[in-house]
Amino acid sequence: MEVERTETNEDIGEIPTAFVYFEEVNQPGGIGLTKRLEKLAKVDLSLPPDVVSSMGRALDQGDRLGDAWYADARTRGSVRQAREEFNTAVQGGIEAVADPSPALVELFTQIHTEPEWLDWDLFDRGATVFRRYGRELYPYFGMATFAGYRTPSVTKPLILTGAYTGNSALNRFWETCKHWTDVSEPDGMRRGNPGYVTSLHVRLLHCMIRARIINHKEWDRSHLGVPISQFNMFTTLMAGSIISGAQLHTLGYRTTDDDIVAMLHMWRYIGYVMGVETPWYPETIEDAYRAMRLTALAQRTEDNDDSRKLCHSFMDSYKPDPEDRGWKRAKAELNYRFQLGHAYFYTPGSYLRSDFPNVGLWRFAPLLRFAPNFLRDTACQKIPTVARLVDHRHRDWRRRELDRTLGAGKGSFSPVETLSR
After folding, report:
1. Is 374 within the bounds of a domain?
2. Do the domain assignments include residue 314?
3. Considering the domain boundaries, does residue 283 fall inside one?
4. CA pair distance 78, 226, nearest whole angstrom
5. Whole-model pTM?
6. What positions does the domain ER-bound oxygenase mpaB/mpaB'/Rubber oxygenase catalytic occupy (predicted)?
7. Are 321 and 332 in contact (CB under 8 A)?
8. Which residues contact 18 (CB under 8 A, 6 or more apart)?
9. What is the dihedral of CA 223, 227, 233, 234, to 10 degrees?
10. 109, exposed or middle or buried, with CB in 10 Å at 0-12, 13-18, 19+?
11. Can you name the residues that pair with 180 across neighbouring β-strands?
């Protein structure tokens, strides 16, 4: 796309004050980030101010149809009844709901209507690429989100619900892993299949959380926008495509630009089913880097007890069980140090600001994976038989891990009953 270099904040309307792109883009940090990304992208990464402004407004927008239905459903009954109505429509279609409300009909009309831009062949390629990362992807996502845990509009909902803190952190993480697994399985996002259904369960969960938090005394909408906003959901889609695709090159993966574009398309449709309808979405590798720059500069991070609690809750799940002894404990301790090394490698700034222990030479441990990843990924790209074998092994590992952690891969995707404060 053709863009002008000048980026200013003129006549942009109401945007939450947490959206600081126009301030950050011309600061030394923003200029440095732009230079680094433009070196990779080999193009000017500026975005037109009206595009940036519309994305800023998306920080104050939730799920238009989902939130409208949920508000309507709550006027007609309890939370349990709302969930039952939604789940009935998910399992049996809108015709399975007795006397469905206009809001429910409109919501499921959107859900069941495939967008004109959807290309299933491109989607399937994106899912295949996504699976190629195998077991590396899950801990990567868990650690790469540390910057999100330090972003107030993300931190606050997680802290208030308590979903990613304490003993619930690991289970919630594996529920998220189930979603990543289900949506990227072959045909997983076809109507009625596990990825499609799981995405709708997550959509309902988000609607319920927004309704619980939006009027909370600690939530400042003029500053933070709405909980689980369009913009923050967009950022999650970028994490699953351009951000992971670019960063995992450092571990030997040979993901091509076309591979990343395919993952962008995959996550665009997953987002569509989940209620994401941002005013702009990248469809080319150049725009993908523009989106990467936009999300990096859009909101400032804050380091406090809440952000540190979220980061530590995830990493604590790797700590040895206090009851482990002997070789089992030694092995678990080594794995914990290895994972700390990964966390530092992926997000050194967040690692240091979260008061994790000095990781020492373990920070280089992820580089041990470079050669095997490079060789395997090269073989997958050149030899179809190898690609099929690796894909089978990765899918088998994902299923076994979900069986081990969630029990036959089942996640409840239920909101907490009581907010943490």
Report:
1. no
2. no
3. yes
4. 23
5. 0.92
6. 145-327
7. yes
8. 59, 152, 153, 223, 224, 225, 299, 300
9. -20
10. exposed
11. none
For the chain, the straight-line distance linking the first and the last C-alpha, in angstroms and rounded, comes to: 46
Total domain count for the chain?
A: 1
What amino acid occupies position 378?
T
Domain that residue 282 falls in:
64-299+385-406
Joined tokens for residue 374 = 């490079």
Contact residues for 400 (Cβ-Cβ < 8 A; gap 6+): none
In 3-state terms, what secondary structure has residue 93? Answer: coil
Query: What is the chain's length?
Result: 421
* Residues with Cβ within 8 Å of residue 19, at least 6 apart in sequence: 56, 59, 225, 231, 298, 299
Residue 180: which residues within 8 A CB-CB, separation 6 or more? Answer: 130, 137, 138, 141, 240
- Could you read off the pLDDT of 102-141 as tens digits, one per residue? 999 999 999 999 999 999 999 999 999 999 998 888 888 8
Task: Say which amino acid occupies 223.
Answer: H
**Are 321 and 171 spatial neighbours (Cβ–Cβ below 8 Å)?**
no
Assigned domain for 228 exists: yes
For residue 67, what are its two tokens? 């939130």
CA distance 73 to 97: 13
- Grouping H, G, I as helix, E, B as strand and the rest as coil, residue 19 is strand
Nearest to 60 by CA among 298, 224, 270, 247: 224
